[in-house]
Design a protein that fits this description.
Layout: H1 2-20, E1 22-23, E2 39-47, E3 54-59, H2 81-92, H3 96-105, E4 110-111, H4 112-121, E5 125-129, H5 134-142, E6 147-150, E7 156-162, E8 166-168, E9 173-175, E10 180-184, E11 193-196, H6 197-206, E12 211-215
Antiparallel strand pairs: 1-4, 2-3, 5-12, 6-7, 6-12, 7-10, 8-9, 10-11
Helix pairs in contact: 2-3
Length: 217
């Protein structure tokens, strides 16, 4: 009985911790790639400060067309990365009025439970993970559904692409040799940052593993 009570209290404490984690958006000096690029499979160079591998190499224009620069909200009010990234998703779904209302109303640091309450008040559907489930991100990316994610230190960015581990060549599944993650940092919205999938996921896990996405009919 004591063991059962211990594990119950332990699980409840973990849930409560992730439900109130606040993202305050410490300013970040980004290392990033130009807006109109996306890595192909060949990689010429990788830079991995603190284990986060930013990729440079040969690129083609593909990802940026999903979230063009004029859709992207810059961080504002000295630390509103959650709200700016969320407003960019609203623009992706062609909801500019909702995005303007959101950014006019909300600013500053945010935590997940309050963010979701605010979405409920506007009757905006959402889905989220607080536990760093990679499958959640894979499922959203398969549907071209951007997600805001805890990324870097005390920061929230927009994930717009996460390459799968396996690729279908028409006959069989093959291991993807260089899967990548494609991120828009609200501190530098003119560019798309491209990281190795593994280093992105590790950083996301280390920063709480929170991700939220929203839906519009």
């Amino acid at each position: 009985m004591n063991n059962r009570r211990f594990w119950y209290l332990f699980i409840v404490s973990i849930i409560l911790y992730y439900s109130v984690i606040s993202i305050g958006c410490i300013p970040y000096e980004p290392q990033s790639l130009t807006d109109d690029v996306l890595p192909q499979l060949s990689i010429e160079k990788e830079s991995c400060p603190d284990g986060l591998c930013l990729i440079e190499g040969d690129y083609v224009n593909r990802v940026s067309s999903k979230v063009p620069e004029h859709y992207r909200y810059d961080n504002y009010a000295r630390g509103s990365c959650v709200h700016a990234s969320l407003a960019t998703i609203m623009m992706y779904f062609e909801q500019p009025e909702t995005a303007d209302i959101w950014t006019d109303t909300y600013r500053g640091g945010e935590y997940s439970s309050r963010l979701h309450d605010r979405l409920d008040m506007l009757q905006i559907e959402w889905d989220a993970t607080w536990s760093g489930f990679d499958s959640f991100l894979d499922r959203q990316m398969e549907k071209n559904q951007p997600c805001i994610v805890t990324f870097k230190s005390k920061h929230m960015c927009l994930l717009i692409g996460l390459d799968p581990i396996y690729l279908w060549d028409g006959d069989q599944w093959l291991v993807n040799p260089t899967p990548k993650a494609h991120v828009i940092d609200p501190n530098n919205t003119k560019e798309i940052e491209v990281y190795t999938r593994d280093s992105f996921l590790q950083n996301w896990h280390n920063n709480g593993g929170w991700a939220t996405t929203i839906f519009f009919e």
